[in-house]
Amino acid sequence: MYCKTKSAMVYGYEGQIIEVESTMTAGLPSFTIIGLPDATVRESAERIRAALKNQKYTLPPKKIIVNLSPAGVRKSGAHLDLSIVVALLHLIEVVNIESDGDCSFLGELTLDGKILPLRGVLVVLEALRQAGVKRVVLPRENYEEGSYIDGLDLIPVVSLSEVTTYLNEGICPERPKREVLLLEGVVRSYIDYKEVKGQEGAKRALAIALTGRHNLLLIGPPGTGKTMLLQNAASLLGNLDLESSIEVAKIHGLSGRDGLSFIKSRQPPFRAPHHSIGRAALIGGGVKPQPGEIALAHKGVLFLDELGEFKGEILEQLREPMENREMRISRLGHQVTYPTDFILLAAMNPCKCGYYGSELKSCTCAPSTVKRALGKLSKPLLDRIDMIYWVNDVDINTLSSLSTENVTDSCSLKETINKGREHLALYEEKSLPFEAAAERLMHDGYIRLNLSPRAFKKIGRVSETIAHMEGVDSICERHVLEALQYRKLESLFGGE
Q1: Burial of 485 (0-12, 13-18, 19+ CB in 10 A)
Q2: pLDDT recorded at residue 186
Q3: In terms of residue numbers, what domain contains 229?
Q4: What gap in Å lies between CA 434 and CA 457, rounded to an integer?
């Protein structure tokens, strides 16, 4: 007696197709799962026994072998429970299934035959679709999220009895309806940028960064509004398209988070980890690799407040994902790759006391202390930060003024960013040409500021973004001159 069903499991950022082969033969009664199963998969034998018993089905006293193919891939998670139990039900002639690979089964079983939702369902459904599967029986609670993967006929079930009814009688359980898209996203309280007074230059830098997806570092004395400016940047981000929101939902679903909320709201993620975070939590990893904060910030913002307080060796790990927009995590026998297309927004004080360079208060740090604080950011890491802006102290008269005249508010910032993005989108993959004078200024700045080729390229990209924000079709001197201003502070940092 032999039966084969199809399922899938999470394998990094992708799904791995698993073929479940089941057989019953004469011999000592046993239930063995082979094919490199982990503890969770091995334990499914006991879950399945109990679930079948509670549903009034009995396995015959035979030797039962379940093989999970491909044999060389370690199987993990509870995604395979339902596929295994359906194969056994076929062997004991409770259900009759076709073995043409048209239908697949996903779900974790409880002891009483209920079917629990799974994490990472978007990833495994995408793998099944690419493998040519047409129908997928899956937990009802995963149906709405899974319905955003086109080309699959999803059968939502809540119990083993619904599965047998569907397979024997063709009666499909009622499909839940998609909820209306929540275009405004999760309600969250943001300040209006008109409340941030005296920092018009920093607002300008933030607008450029968000328009062109540039990495930005704000540095300056404490209390100047650096954190306030950046932690409210999420209010200025536009909605994602459906494809990008599904990418984000996949990553968050792998971590057990609510990925569906990103599809509904279309809002990009905003991640703000504390400076005490460990390497694996920031970069990703673990015995069973999980996405870290940099992957969870994909298509959104990674905000690192108090950048100077992060461990230097952890910050250095950001270099590859910032450059390549992906993070590769290697484990014995396989490699997992997570996308990391995020905007880095960071803030830091220039020294331990915070007042190095302040116009209002004197710095009490020794020169060596200042050098050590600024030296934590290495030259290769700084090369990957497109813009560095000094946030000056604000005088008391500006702070206490009730007038908001000539103060940029959130509405104005959004309008500026949106117009810049719209103009940028008109050019798709094409770059704006440099005027002759702008090109000469670029070369002069490269030599005068002793920039690296990578930093030179980033100045060009920032100049182009500024041109798009003005709605012009070429890059002129004033665009390059402003972009160069965002590299001048690089000389402050003494890291290697």
Answers
A1: middle
A2: 47
A3: 193-427
A4: 13
